[in-house]
Amino acid sequence: MDTMKVERLTVNFKTLEEFKQFKHYGNQELSMLEDLESNMVENNILSPFFGIYFGSALVGRMSLYKVDKQYDHYFDPPQQYLELWKLEVLPDYRGNGYGTRLVDFAKSFNLPIKTSPLINSQGFWEKMGFEKANYDMQRDLGTNPLVWTPDGVHQKPTKPNIPQNIQLTETTIEQKQEG
Predict the structure, then answer these.
(1) What does the pLDDT profile of the chain (179 residues) look like in tens digits?
(2) C-alpha–C-alpha distance, residues 80 and 70, integer Å
(3) Could you give the 3-state DSSP secondary structure of residue 82?
(4) Closest CA relative to residue 6, chosen from 74, 72, 101
(5) Closest by alpha carbon to 158, among 179, 131, 139?
(6) How far apart are CA 85 and CA 117, in angstroms?
(7) Which residue in 7, 98, 121, 176 is deepest, having the highest Cβ count within 10 Å?
(8) Prior bond to 157 cis, omega within 30?
């Protein structure tokens, strides 16, 4: 695993061509082509894309975005965190530690991480130490995010989603049980 070097990917036409193979093998939402095309600045060194090469072939990739403290609705205390998107390893290279290496790279920043897992990937994320976020209907909008927290950071507790105009009393509860 020491030979697996995570690199910031440059945004150029070569990278665009390399990403096309991921779109072929992965789900439509995994494709970073649209992101890449909208950020097409030759060799942009501040790209949010990271990957691992095996020889000259890009075999694993992810995008990593830093979210400012003011937008933190997941962690306590509120702080900057990373949002990990579109992690994918090409099928012929899965099971060799490339995905683990990419996640470990993200964890090395020692910031909390939020991700939205793909179908059937829950086991991988749990193995990596991620847990389900305390679900908040307004915040999560039907997604099921997972989070990882470094020492000293916890998930923000969620508030119950009770409409403001409803007041529950013992009488109301008793009436519901009788009816």
Answers:
(1) 457 899 988 776 777 777 777 754 444 434 455 665 665 555 555 778 899 999 999 999 998 999 999 999 899 999 999 999 889 899 899 999 999 999 999 999 999 999 988 777 888 999 999 999 887 777 877 788 999 999 999 998 866 554 545 454 554 444 445 55
(2) 8
(3) strand
(4) 101
(5) 139
(6) 9
(7) 98
(8) no
Residue 88, both tokens: 């994918």
Residue type, 95: G
Entry field: residues in the chain: 179
Q: What angle do CA 9, 13, 18 make, to 5 degrees?
A: 60
Residue 70 CB neighbours (<10 A): 7
**What's the pTM value of the predicted model, to 2 decimals?**
0.74
